[in-house]
Amino acid sequence: MKKNLPLIVLVLVFVLVLGGAYLLYSRLGAQFSPQTLAAEPGVSSDSSASSSTSEPSGETATLEDSSDEEPSGEDTSDSEPQRTAAPDFTVTDLDGNEVHLSDFIGKPVVLNFWASWCGPCKSEMPDFDQFYAKYGEDIHFVMVNATDGSRETVDTASAFLAEQGYSLPVYYDTEYDASITYGVTALPTTYFIDAEGYLVAYAFSALDSETLQTGIDMIYPAA
């Protein structure tokens, strides 16, 4: 019996870890449902893009306004909502040249974090590629690859892009600067940034074509 004790303890620990992981996954899944865009505080949802908020079901996108907070008791009717500037970061292009998010300020930015091993990332990539072909002259698409050097490398990511024939501009987060700056813990993650460099909306799940259009409409009204 004593000889089997370490094995029994190991099995119990494994069961506890597995159960904890399941509970965490369930809670996150309930908190961040697929096809959901959340607006940054100070961003009004009363725009042409908000038409997708009607009765979400199935693949229908929903738009959540995170500025709806409990009243503090202070009169804020005359104060302007606080906007959040998109934090800068450094990534590299395929040739190893440094690229900064701030380099793209002046036009709206669609910032996406992805990896070639990520199924949901691959499912949304065709829509991103099509929207880049449509809006690429007016909107910067910054596709940041989660290049950890083991599960994902520059070679595996670039090979995937070449195989699929995507023309999207891709940058490699080999030093984790972008991922750490934006607190990315799940893929895909997408941020929509206006031409002035302010965060407008974000999503922590794969986007379909309709939801991607909703986000673009929020940062590029002419779309």
Automatic annotation (TrEMBL):
Species source reads Gemmiger gallinarum
Stretches with biased composition (Acidic residues):
65-78
Extract the PROSITE patterns matched here.
Answer: THIOREDOXIN_1, THIOREDOXIN_2
| Domain Thioredoxin residues, every copy | 80-221
**Which domain of life does this protein belong to?**
Bacteria
Q: Which SUPFAM superfamilies does the record associate with it?
A: Thioredoxin-like
Q: Which Gene3D superfamilies match?
A: Glutaredoxin
Question: Region (Disordered): which ranges?
Answer: 39-89
User: Which PANTHER family does the record cross-reference, listed alphabetically?
Assistant: THIOL:DISULFIDE INTERCHANGE PROTEIN DSBE (PTHR42852), THIOREDOXIN-LIKE PROTEIN HI_1115 (PTHR42852:SF17)
Q: What segments bear the compositional bias annotation Low complexity?
A: 39-61
Indicate what this protein is called per its UniProt record: TlpA family protein disulfide reductase
